Amino acid sequence: MAQVSEAQVLDALRSVMDPERGKDIVSLGMLSGLTIRDNNVAFAIEVDPKRGAQAEPIRHAAEKAVDRIPGVLSVTAVLTAHRGGPQPAQQGHRHDHGHDHAHGHDHGHDHGHGQPAQPRGGQGDQKALVPGVKAIVAVASGKGGVGKSTTASNLALAMAANGLSVGLLDADIYGPSMPRMLGISGRPNSSDGRRLEPMENYGIKVMSMGFLVAEDTPMIWRGPMVMSALQQMLRDVNWGELDVLVVDMPPGTGDAQLTMAQQVPLAGAVIVSTPQDIALLDARKGLNMFRRVDVPVLGIIENMSYFCCPNCNHRSDIFSHGGARKEAETLGMEFLGELPLHIAIRETSDQGQPIVVSQPESEHAKVYRNIATRVWEKVSGNQGPKRAAPRIVVE
C-alpha cells in the first residue's frame, strides 16, 4: 500500500472552505498538528471560540475530504478554540499552514481562568459525550512519575475482575502508555467510518492516542488541541454499555487537566501520590483542582509506599511512608490504600501483563481489587437510585 503524503492531505484540505471567511482552511492557516502514521491521518482545525459547535460542519467536511484519498485508513480531525486579540480576522498570517505546530504565537488561552475551559451547554450536554457509560472515574496526580498510569491500568483491571464492564481511556496525550502497559498493538477500526471501535485486552475496552501515532512521535499540541482530541476519544468511540470508564488523566494541573475536569461528566477522581512531601504538595494541588470544579474526590492512594527487598525481605521507606494517609486525614479525604515499590508491579506493567491479571492471587493484586471495590461503592452510591449497583465483596 502506498504511503499517504503530507502534500496529498494538504491538497485535499484545500477543497474545504470556511463559509464565513470565503477561503479554504489551509490558506487561512486553520490547520495544525498534522500527523500521518501508517496512513492514519490526524490534525486539528483552529476556529474562533465564539463559533463553537457551528464549526462542526467544517470538521466533518475535512474528514471526508481526507478520507477520499486512496490508501487512507482513518482520519481524526479535532476542533480547537483559537483565541485571538482584538482583530481575529488578521491572525491567520502567523500560522505555518498547519503542520508546523511548534510556532510561537500566543493564543491567549487564559489558563486556569475558565475561558475557554468553561463547559459548553448544561450538564445534560456533557453527559451526551459518552452515552451508555454509567460512571467516569479519573485517576490523577499533581505531578508525573508517581505511578499514576500503573495504578489506573491495575485499577481498571481490578474493577473488571470484580465483575464490572470496564473501559480505560488513556488521556495522557503527550505520553500515552496504555498500549504498552496492556500489551495492545495495532490500530482501532471503524465499522461505519464515523466512530472508532476501542481496542480490547484482558476483558476491558481501551482507547489511547498511542494507537494512532508512533510510540516515539512527540505530540507538540497546545491545551485546546489536546482537549478536542480527548473529547473525540470520548464521543467518537463506540464504548458501548459500561459500568465504569477509568480515565488515566495527564499528570499535573494545567489547562488540559482543568478543562478535562470541567467538561467531562466525572463521577469522581482518585488521587495518586508517593509519600514524600514534594509529591504530597502536588497531590494537594490536584485535589484542590477537582474541588474547585465540583468533582468529588473519592480518595488518595499512596503508591511506592515502601520497598521490600525481594532477597532478604528487608523493608525500606525510600520515599518516606504514610504521608498520603496523613494528608488524606488532614484534608478530610478517604485513604484508599497503599502499594509498595515492588519489582513485580514494575515488570508486569512493562511486559504488558499488569499484576492484577498476571498474578491475581498476589497481595498486590488483592490491594488493587480492594481499592477497586471501594471506589465502585462510592461511585455507585453517588449515582442515586437509577445508577445503583450491588455491593461487590472480594472473598
Q: How much beta, percentage-wise?
A: 15-25%
Overall average residue pLDDT: 76
SSE sequence, one letter per element: HEEEEHEHEHEHEEHEHEHEEEHEHHH
Span from first to last CA? Answer: 53 Å
**Largest β sheet strand count, sense and barrel closure:** 8 strands, mixed
Which strands sit side by side, in order, in the main sheet? 8-9-7-10-6-11-12-15
Task: Note the topology.
Blueprint: H1 6-13, E1 17-18, E2 23-24, E3 31-37, E4 40-47, H2 56-67, E5 74-81, H3 123-127, E6 133-140, H4 148-161, E7 166-170, H5 178-181, E8 199-201, E9 204-208, H6 223-235, E10 242-248, H7 255-263, E11 268-273, H8 277-292, E12 297-302, E13 307-308, E14 315-316, H9 323-331, E15 335-338, H10 343-350, H11 355-358, H12 363-382
Parallel strand pairs: 4-5, 6-10, 6-11, 7-9, 7-10, 11-12, 12-15
Antiparallel strand pairs: 1-2, 3-4, 8-9, 13-14
Description:
The longest helix has 20 residues. With 395 residues, the chain is of the alpha/beta class. The radius of gyration is 22 Å and the shape is elongated. The C terminus is likely disordered. Helix content is 31%, strand content 19%.
Task: Give a brief rundown of this model.
The protein is of the alpha/beta class and 395 residues long. The protein has helices spanning 6-13, 56-67, 123-127, 148-161, 178-181, 223-235, 255-263, 277-292, 323-331, 343-350, 355-358, 363-382; strands spanning 17-18, 23-24, 31-37, 40-47, 74-81, 133-140, 166-170, 199-201, 204-208, 242-248, 268-273, 297-302, 307-308, 315-316, 335-338. The chain is elongated, with a radius of gyration of 22 Å.
